[in-house]
């Protein structure tokens, strides 16, 4: 965060709800790429490449056998069966360094260099060994079981492009290309500030009018899953001076995320407490459910997202807004991949003027199509239903009633814990 002496004057945004699409666009306009850092290959999983990665060697670096068997000259394999003198034994990692002469063969194993002069690999199932002689009973076309040098890639070939989030496959390719270090986008440091007198941390004493806070820990886990570094701040009480003292600990963060204290009214704590300290607010109300009281702006030049306090609203808004903001900071391009569709398993009523995100179960129908069924209860305090949900059904503003069997847009929630 910047020096308080150079704070911009707080701006009061115009009232009124804006669309989800406009809110996302305005948020992404105030966040930027954080730059790159070099990391060792074992730490590169999930990071976003900041430069193209080219191979430092050719793979394979020599013609290699693709099977266990015998390297031979096709000119010697005309009339079967044929007897060849075995003059060498070549496991992977070794080589036969003499040209193969007429009537000779070399015992060879998968991955080993093919001797000079050999153009055929006779697989071991088609041979019979008798001492230092091999009897060849069947053959394959010349070259069939020989991997040419550079079959996979050649030195200088670009195997991975900048802007790609690295998977285990990519890490393996980078290793094969002899790239032990990679330049990747820096991980965003996300300061998480829960607020409210009514919430306490799990395990702490709970007063008669209090509840256990889930937002901070859920957001920290979410930030880490996206590839960021979560900085957990203490729960700020509903008192402006205390909140300002706690938020000072966010100095140096790339993104400030608050939860609670964003509603319109006498308890809109965040705007009141931070407004005099450098909060430059862009908007504070989005036409969506859950998550209407969503604030976006900058606090002392640090992008800030003020999330609602209800647990479901917090995580739904994190998925729709915090995730794309972090991805832009890491250098991941917005691919604008449309959300998938699913077939409704139950009727839905007409929607009002807010875009709705309904928690739902997801399954595969007998025809392989996705099928979704919204939970009957959709209260934004019900974290248990969010944990059970597989997706969110998206209902556009003023959407008419949707009948069973009709197609609806969904936002998948479940993602594989292991990705190749």
Topology:
Blueprint: H1 20-28, E1 36-40, E2 53-54, E3 64-65, E4 69-72, E5 82-90, E6 104-108, E7 120-123, E8 127-130, E9 133-136, E10 146-147, E11 158-160, H2 168-176, E12 181-185, E13 189-194, E14 199-200, E15 211-212, H3 215-226, E16 229-232, H4 240-247, E17 255-259, H5 269-275, E18 279-283, E19 288-289, E20 295-299, E21 302-307, H6 311-330, E22 341-344, E23 355-364, E24 370-374, H7 383-388, E25 391-395, E26 407-412
Parallel strand pairs: 5-6, 13-16, 13-17, 14-15, 17-21, 19-23, 22-24
Antiparallel strand pairs: 1-12, 2-11, 3-10, 4-6, 4-7, 5-9, 8-9, 18-20, 20-21, 22-26, 23-24, 23-25, 25-26
Describe the protein.
The structure is a single chain. This protein is 17% helix and 28% strand. It is α/β, with parallel strands linked by helices and 420 residues long. It has 4 domains: 4-35 and 187-330, Molybdenum Cofactor Biosythetic Enzyme, Chain A; 40-56 and 156-185, Molybdopterin biosynthesis moea protein, domain 2 (Alpha-Beta Complex); 64-147, Molybdopterin biosynthesis moea protein, domain 3 (Molybdopterin biosynthesis moeA protein, domain 3), CATH 2.170.190; 341-412, Beta Barrel (Beta-clip), CATH 2.40.340. The strands form 7 sheets. It has a 6-stranded mixed beta sheet with strand order 7-4-6-5-9-8, with no helix packed on it. The chain has a 6-stranded mixed beta sheet with strand order 16-13-17-21-20-18, with helices on both faces. Helix 1 (20-28) crosses helix 6 (311-330), helix 3 (215-226) packs parallel to helix 6 (311-330) and helix 4 crosses helix 5. The longest helix is centred in the C-terminal third of the chain and has 20 residues, at 311-330. The two termini are 38 Å apart. Residues 2-14 have low confidence and may be disordered.
């Amino acid at each position: 965060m910047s020096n308080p002496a150079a704070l911009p004057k707080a701006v009061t945004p115009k009232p009124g709800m804006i669309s989800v699409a406009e809110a996302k666009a305005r948020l992404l306009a105030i966040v930027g790429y954080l730059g790159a850092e070099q990391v060792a290959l074992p730490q590169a999983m999930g990071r976003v490449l900041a430069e193209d990665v080219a191979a430092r060697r050719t793979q394979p670096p020599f013609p290699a056998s693709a099977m266990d068997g015998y390297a031979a000259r096709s000119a010697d394999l005309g009339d079967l069966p044929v007897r060849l003198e075995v003059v060498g034994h070549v496991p992977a990692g070794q080589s036969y360094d003499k040209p193969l002469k007429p009537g000779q063969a070399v015992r060879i194993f998968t991955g080993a260099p093919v001797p000079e002069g050999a153009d055929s690999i006779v697989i071991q199932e088609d041979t019979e060994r008798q001492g230092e002689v091999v009897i060849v009973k069947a053959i394959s076309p010349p070259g069939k079981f020989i991997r040419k040098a550079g079959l996979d890639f050649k030195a200088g070939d670009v195997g991975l492009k900048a802007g790609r989030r690295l998977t285990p496959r990519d890490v393996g390719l980078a290793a094969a290309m002899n790239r032990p270090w990679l330049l990747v986008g820096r991980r965003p440091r996300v300061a998480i500030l829960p607020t409210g007198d009514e919430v306490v941390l799990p395990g702490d004493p709970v007063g008669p009018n209090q509840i256990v806070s889930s937002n901070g820990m859920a957001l920290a886990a979410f930030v880490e899953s996206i590839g960021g570094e979560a900085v957990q701040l203490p729960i700020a009480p509903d008192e402006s001076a205390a909140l300002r003292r706690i938020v000072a600990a966010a100095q140096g963060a790339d993104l400030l995320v608050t939860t609670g204290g964003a509603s319109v009214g006498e308890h809109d704590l965040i705007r009141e407490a931070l407004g005099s300290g450098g909060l430059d607010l862009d908007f504070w109300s989005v036409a969506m459910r859950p998550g209407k009281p969503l604030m976006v702006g900058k606090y002392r030049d640090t992008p800030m997202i003020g999330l609602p306090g209800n647990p479901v609203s917090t995580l739904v808004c994190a998925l729709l807004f915090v995730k794309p903001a972090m991805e832009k900071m890491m250098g991941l391009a917005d691919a604008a991949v449309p959300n998938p569709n699913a077939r409704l398993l139950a009727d839905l009523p007409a929607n009002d003027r807010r875009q709705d995100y309904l928690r739902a179960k997801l399954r595969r129908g007998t025809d392989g199509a996705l099928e979704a069924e919204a939970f009957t209860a959709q209260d934004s305090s019900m974290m248990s239903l969010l944990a059970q949900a597989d997706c969110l059904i998206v209902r556009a503003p003023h959407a008419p009633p949707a009948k069973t069997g009709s197609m609806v847009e969904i936002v998948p929630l479940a993602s594989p814990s292991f990705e190749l």
